């Protein structure tokens, strides 16, 4: 699925962890940088054209300088140290060079994106962190909000790629910036304490999944006005794989 710019902007605006500088860079600056480092991920290109630079927590995100000076500063995505490791392009690191480092795994393309890896500063070991740059922002915001990677397994899978989903049929599946507010607004903790509201259909029905027990992947559609603790009995089971279900609906919404 392609990250939704509106949801991505809402996530950035809502998260105290993410600080983007207003104003982006022209497309020709990005193209000049890509002439040096190769194609940049689509959602990172969106970030550069919208915010240019910024921070995620203590990590500084790489900038793009105007050509022909685009590789003269350590902050630039084309700086030599960011490209020093084969098949890695390090786009986020602490300003003093310590702490975790995050990079695009150029040997692990995912469509118009690259998998994101985190490198431990002490051991040098790497671990997968997200599937897209948008997912990097989403997972970072989720962890800051206390969700770890996600409150249920399928949201964790989804958030590694996108900050939620909006479909033409009115369906919305929430990112970490919406989840708490929507669950609070519908009093899910009081009315259905073993369930998490992960989205809604825009017409008064919610999509819920259990956050404890064996079955944490089945998603049920239930009337939010008559919500109770027995969602599995009163609701309609719509899928056992939220991500695959959304992918199918996305294709129907946008045949291209």
TrEMBL record:
Domain of life, per UniProt, equals Bacteria
**Pfam families documented for this protein:** SMI1_KNR4
- InterPro entries this protein is in? Knr4/Smi1-like_dom (IPR018958), Knr4/Smi1-like_sf (IPR037883)
Instruction: Please name the Gene3D superfamilies in this protein's record.
Output: SMI1/KNR4-like (3.40.1580.10)
Q: Which residues form the Knr4/Smi1-like domain?
A: 28-137
Q: What is this protein called?
A: Knr4/Smi1-like domain-containing protein
